[in-house]
Amino acid sequence: MKIYTKTGDKGKTSLFGGNRVAKSNERIGAYGTVDELNSFIGLALAEKLNEKTEKILLESQNLLFVIGSELATPENVKNKLTRIIKSADVESLENSIDTIENELKPLQNFILPGGTRSASLLHICRAICRRAERRVVEINSSEDVNPYLLAYLNRFSDLLFVLARFENHSSSEPEIYWKTRG
Q1: Burial code of 141-152, b = ≥16 C-beta within 10 A, e = fewer?
Q2: Residue-level pLDDT at 29
Q3: What is the spatial distance between Cα 34 and Cα 26, in angstroms, rounded to a whole number?
């Protein structure tokens, strides 16, 4: 099978179920941003990471595929999905956040993205995750989106922030505090 189909040459693509839409469709933008996030997580995983971080990110990559498939599926064919994001997925993120935060000093100031290369990549992932969340909120303004999917993206960006801090902590890299003028 060839990788190219030529079916998208005129700016259209198919959603799950066969509906053809413009590549500028908000669903395409949302799951494209989730795909971008997943790719940057792959880049972060190419770095030497703490084992806990690596395990969490690998699990999350699989769930980002679930999110992508949910976003690529219109309401009229949602019943064909074999897996969707559930409350347990959100709770798992919250448990990971709590576990990692217990190993960090409480945050007293705003911090700037940076530190180690791995932490910096995780900050990029966090920013992309926030953009993905905004794209999904756009969809949710015109049709219902699984509320756990929205919660997952919101919580995942929090987790990425905590993991970036954890990577700096694991490498004994000091956090960079935001300095206000004046």
Answers
A1: eeeebbebbbbb
A2: 83
A3: 12
What separation in angstroms does the CA of 102 have from each of 51, 105, 107, 118, 163?
16, 8, 11, 20, 12
Q: How far apart are the first and last CA of the chain?
A: 63
Q: What whole-number distance in Å separates Cα of residue 5 and Cα of residue 1?
A: 9
Residue 126: the pLDDT is 98
d(CA 38, CA 58): 10
Determine the pLDDT at residue 15.
64
- Domains of the chain from N-terminus onward: 12-177 (1.20.1200.10)
pLDDT for 143: 86
Residues of the chain falling short of pLDDT 50? none
Q: What predicted TM-score, i.e. pTM, was given to this entire model?
A: 0.91
* Beta strand 111-112 pairing with 176-177: antiparallel
**Count of CB atoms situated within 10 Å of the CB of 125:** 28
**How far, in Å, are 13, 44, 91, 96, 116 from residue 85 at the CA level?**
24, 23, 11, 17, 32
Of 110, 122, 108, nearest to 162 by C-alpha is: 122
CA distance 56 to 107: 21
